Amino acid sequence: MSSTTASPADLAPDDANDDAPNVGLAPTRRNEARTAWSFSAPGLLFLLVFLIIPFLLAIAFSFSNARLITPLPTRFTGVDNYVEVLTSGTFWRGLLNNTIFVLVVVPVQTFLALMLAILVNRKIPGRTIFRTIYFMPVVTVMAAAATIWVLLFNPDGLINAVMETITFGAFAPDWLNSTTWALPAVMIVSIWQGVGFQMIILLASLQDVPDTLYEAASIDGATPWQQFVNVTLPGIRNGLIFVVTVTTILAFRLFDQVYLMPQSPGGPLDATRTMMLEMVQTGFNEQAIGRGSAIAVVFFVIVLTITLVQRRFIREEGQV
Amino acid sequence: MRRNMALAGIALTGLVLAGCSGDLGINRAICDGEVTVDTVTMFAHEGAEAGAISAAVDAFNQGPGSELGLTAELTLIPEGQYSDNINAAAASDDLPDVLDHDGPTMANLAWNGSLSPLDDCIPDDLRGDVLPSLIEQGTYAGNLWSVGSFDSGLGLYAWRSALEEAGVRIPDGIDDAWTADEFREVLVALQDVGFERPLDPKFWYGSQGEWFSYAYQPVVWSAGADLVTRDGEPTADGVLNSDEAVAGLETFQGWIQDGLVDTAAADDSNFLSKRAPISWVGHWMYAPYKEAAGDDLVVLPLPDFGTGTKTGLGSWAWGMSSTTADPDAAWALISHMMSLDVITAITEANGAVPGTQGAIDASELYSEGGDLELFVQQLDRAPDVAVPRPVTPAYPAITTQYRAVIDDIVQGADVEATLDGAVAAIEADIEANEGFPEPTDEASPSG
Amino acid sequence: MSTTDPAPRTDPGAHATSDPAAADPANDDAGIGTSGTTLRLKPSDAWMYVVMVALAIFFLFPLVYMFVSSFKPDDVVLSSSGSLGALWPSPTVGLENYGDAIERASVVRVFLNSVLISTLIVGGGLVVNSLFGYALARLKFRGRNIMVAVMVALIIIPFEALAVPLLFMGAQANMLDTYAIQILPFIANPLYVYLFYTFFLNIPVELEEAARVDGAGPVRTFVSVIAPLAKPAYATMAILGFLFSWGQFLWPVMVTRGVAVRPLPLGIGTFQTTPPIQWGDIMAYAGLMTLPLLIIFLIFQRYFVQGVASSGVKG
Q1: Which of these, A86, A163, B248, C86, could form a disulfide with B305 (CB 3.0-4.6 Å)?
Q2: pLDDT recorded at residue B7
């Protein structure tokens, strides 16, 4: 951590210039803008080269028949790729699965994260141990986590041993080979692995809520529930917005789990196919970069629209 | 560097918009017998034989390599990521001189210009010694593009005592393989004597590698169908979704739906502990199975779905990259990989069928009277019994679709509809590649 | 586990002061500025512990299963999975699986590669992303709101969509099979910029103003006032960034060839190819991949949430 606090100075060559007029004065607007740009410059540059340019390239590919390796000439093909993508059953199946996944995972994971954050925010002995444990899955590499859970979800595995005991043998599906239970299995793993991150964000937000507010509410005779609704929720607003926004986007980007866990990626019978999986298989495994890029663009437009709609209803405080 | 990347990006945008062109010319390697470089690079997949390959490269550097003033550099790449890795290398002009590749991907690599033909380099005596099945696998558009140090075998392994307990006939060889109906009765009889799910199909290998295609294409062949037409422009329509293919795969699906197949296993313990006494798998399981079953182990041909038993052939093989600076250097290394000692070492490590007749004669397991003689007999009757997976540049799309077909029908999907879907996808890929026109010597030289 | 974490101190005086401005930014242990107590819900603690323990079991058992399995013979891993024996290392082969994993996959080399790559990505990322996030949250300049919106839009673009264009760009720039090609594309990340942005929005403006009145320029204000307050954000990005780069798979497959610059996760492929399957070795390799991250996390997690309640400083 110490290196990070020292190094920003290296990145702002106009440090001295900025300092000069500031002595004893509030900075002017122009100075502030200049500082802002110099603070943003490294990030902007990296994002431009490694994110924006490649994405523009992908957009260009999407209007061509480009392939990864081919002896044939690359041609402009207009919107052919888009027509193909939008009339493909597997793409819509992917979108449907993504939608189901988002509608289940975002609320469940956010609620669970809030519950965990509240639990470990209480001043009770052992809370750091619990906080640590709840976060541990987050630091498990997905390739490892997927391997573990595949064994756990085996019909003769530990999950079903527990299920059979609890339900007296009534419920013990072959999770990953069942068109009904494969997606729920992926959801369980995703929540298991992801909820700790949200918990930490919400925990940091919870700790930002001033004690005085609770004290005031307490004096006014507010019940715990009223305190939660009127003090806690507004207090953690920014954290909640971050969590919901990011969880939604990451849920749409679901790929690793559905690539690694089922016997075949997206299986059985496309029950776990997602838009991302469709994109990677088309664009890289099948080498059809043009069509793969078209999927990427369609994906981007869909998720951007959803995010914009989401943000029309909720805005960060402090955003003008 | 960042600026380089940015410039590269802008340059590429121009390239994409202007339309970059490849060409369909064959980049013919000429071996003049003189080695003019001092290093030769090679990629190999990291399979069971990886140690033997490393040792062979070391031996090359100390022996024939040093005589030629040539050093070989080997890069081992895990099998699961191998094809993605070489595709990325090919797309970015980053291929090594000698390229290990899974047999059926050869035609695509040849078509897309990654490989050079070996015809000018391979001496006649070696060509004559390489198994005909491997020549079959390595030939596309009238040229030989690859040779393998080993071939493969696929069959049914069984516990003889279990079959005897069930009172079923045990086939003697290729010509009296169980028919598909008879095989079903065998499985039912085994179930009757207490083996709950008697057939181990190794579904847990997963459908990401070649397994589903290698293991279950013989069902379609044996039923009298194929995946695509083999001559001219490939077509799957009317072939992969023909009545014969549908019938064969429905029979196969029936065994699963009747609960005769252990679909849930995730390791080899079902066969090793005799819970599932028949295993549908390749040569690589011989050693562990022999250790578990001893003399009780029998190796049988796959069931006959109507036109005789069929099996897969081919495996990883060596090719020469079209970007190699000196074909003589690349060939010197490939030639070393095809020498008797190296083939023997490699096949001792992975248990595969040796790639030359000379090496088979030297093998205890595969020569006449050996435990795995069946696999050699199958290969000797290629392409009649052992059938090469379709040698066409469309193979990557074909295998992707076929694996999905197997996966789906195992899950209970309707066979005919599934095959129609796969055919449509394969046809779309063929169309997107303009029918995969064959490369020729006439096309313009590389540009 | 708890030894790396400051023991929670119950300090009755903690509630006494709660003026946010009283937080001392120079003190390493200072919190974000307010007390960490939350809901005054007081159901019986016993009931609460039951819930917490049940949740702990849910989060922990897969990891326990992984480590336990990594000490078992290959063919026992699966067959012992259907009972509580799955969570007990018996029969055991000791460290044999770890030995196999290390020997077969050049673990030392690829491990050091991964450490180097991940450290540089995270180190660079902490600086670049936090500066950017701060500018967006706190500094007034034209185009700021658009940039925040663009940042959220950029989060949507998955790396998988950029891989092929980036591969072509890397090839043109002659950067394949290098460390640089595995590091540079991941330094700036819109998700982390947005994370810092969200955190910086919450920091009281008074602190910066005080620093400015004292004559500090923007860089000094950032380094000595803002950054220390944002430790939870830095720690979160460090851990997420490390985790993400540590687990990278698709990109290294595309841009690395030999073992020279290959990172750790590609090695697991060594065990997933050649039958018979060696679940013990695979679990050991998974354990080797996970362990360094767990250790880093346990060391750094105290920065995660610098609540007053856990530091006790404010009492």
Answers
A1: B248
A2: 66
Tell me, what's the pLDDT at C273?
Answer: 61
| Residues of C in Cβ contact (< 8 Å) with A276 | 158, 160
Contact A119 C33 (CB under 8 A): no
Minimal Cα–Cα distance from C135 to chain A, Å?
5
Residue A12 within any structural domain of the chain: yes
Q: Do C169 and B77 touch (CB under 8 A)?
A: no
Structure tokens, C94:
């000791």
Query: CB under 8 Å, gap of 24 or more: what pairs does C173-177 form?
Result: C173/B1, C173/B4, C173/B5, C173/B7, C173/B8, C174/B4, C175/B1, C175/B4, C175/B5, C176/B92, C176/B94, C176/C255, C176/C257, C177/B94, C177/C255, C177/C256, C177/C257, C177/C258, C177/C260, C177/C261
- A69 in any annotated domain: no
Does residue A276 share a domain with residue A157? yes
A92 and A134 together in one domain: yes
Same domain, A178 and A250: yes
Which of A66, A69, A289, A71 lies closest to B438, judged by CA? A71
**pTM, 2 dp:** 0.84
The pLDDT of residue A11 is: 31
Q: Which helix or strand (DSSP H or E) is residue A76 part of?
A: none
CB contact under 8 A, C254 and B78: no
Exposure class string for C34-61: b at 16+ Cβ within 10 A, else e: bbbbbbeeeeeeeeebeebeebbeebeb
| CATH number of the domain encompassing residue A237 | 1.10.3720.10
Residues linked to residue C272 through DSSP beta bridges, in sequence order: none
pLDDT for position B206: 77
Hey, what's the torsion of the CAs at A259, A261, A266, A269, to 10 degrees? Answer: 160
ipTM over 0.85: no
Task: State how many domains chain A has.
Answer: 2
The residue in chain A having the minimum alpha-carbon distance to the alpha carbon of residue C85 is A158
pLDDT for residue C18 is more than 50: no
By residue range, what is the domain housing residue A39? 8-62
Instruction: Give the number of other CB atoms < 10 A from CB of residue C284.
Output: 28
Q: Do A221 and A298 belong to one domain? A: yes
Phi-psi region of B431 (alpha: psi -120 to 50; beta: other; left: phi over 0): alpha
Q: Are residues A57 and A103 in the same domain?
A: no
Same domain, A231 and A299: yes
Question: With an 8 Å Cβ cutoff, are C132 and A157 in contact?
Answer: no
Give strand pairing partners of B317.
B101
User: Is C117 a residue whose pLDDT tops 90?
Assistant: yes
* A306: in domain: yes
Contact flag B92-C269 (C-beta cutoff 8 Å):
no
User: Which chain B residue shows the shortest CA-CA distance from C180?
Assistant: B1
Contacts of C173 in chain B (CB under 8 A): 1, 4-5, 7-8
Q: Tell me how far apart the alpha carbons of residues B233 and C75 are, in angstroms, rounded to a whole number.
A: 47
**C292's tokens:** 């360094």
Domain presence at residue A68 = no
Cα B257 from chain centroid (whole Å): 29
Would you say A163 and A169 are in contact if contact means Cβ atoms under 8 Å apart?
A: no
On whether both A164 and A298 belong to a single domain, the answer is yes
pLDDT tens-digit map of B238-285: 999 999 999 999 999 999 999 999 998 888 989 999 999 999 999 999
Angstroms from B113 CA to nearest CA on chain A = 7
Q: Are C11 and C196 in contact (CB under 8 A)?
A: no
pLDDT tier, C160 (very low <50, low <70, confident <90, very high otherwise): confident
- Chain C residues with CB under 8 Å of B205 CB are 275
> Can you tell me whether residue A196 is helix, strand or coil?
helix
Residues A103 and A158 in one domain: yes
Element containing residue C279 per DSSP (H, E): helix C279-300
